[in-house]
Write a structure and sequence with these properties.
Layout (H helix, E strand, L loop, with lengths): L4 H8 L5 E6 L6 H14 L4 E5 H6 L9 H20 L3 E5 L5 H9 L6 E7 L2 H7 L4 H6 L21 E4 L5 H11 L8 H8 L1
Parallel strand pairs: 1-3, 1-4, 2-3, 4-5
Amino acid sequence: MSISPEERAEARNAHKACVLWFTGYSAAGKSTLAMALQRRLFDGGAQTALLDGDEVRRGLCRDLGFSADDRTENIRRVAEVASLFFQAGHIVLCAFISPFARDRAFARSLIPEGRFLEVYVRRPLAVCKERDPHGLYEKALRGEIPQFTGVSSPYEPPQHPELVADTELETVETIVAAILERLAGLLQPPAADARRSRG
């Protein structure tokens, strides 16, 4: 008999399994937020997994380019991996541009309702281009990176995200606190701990 995410969470974790999907332009702050949130969750006893666009591109998806089809396949693979971590009872943080709404909808479809939270990391494109820590926009503008989101390929902003993180106006600490508040219903002590405390 298989072990459900709920059983795994009750046995080991101080939380229920869920997936947080950070989407936004390159240099919007997705990875920074995801890493800061993971630290807070981990320090609080959570079992976490972080899937980051740059790291995935260097390994799992190193055979893919940046065409529309390759971008869709990139997100499909990531969504399947996130689902596996979810089934293992983890809080999964995914930080990907994921520019197409249909691909994000696919990722959501793999996770039970209420356990997938889309976090729209919003920062003006002009500011992202100025920030450009890895020089990607500059390379795209020179034609070295074809079909780059925000330069030669579109970004479809989420219409109804669970959370909007405005990294131009809010600090990382403020945004992380807001996400933790949104997760409060999932960050509950395991039932076994509650039983022991009553005993």
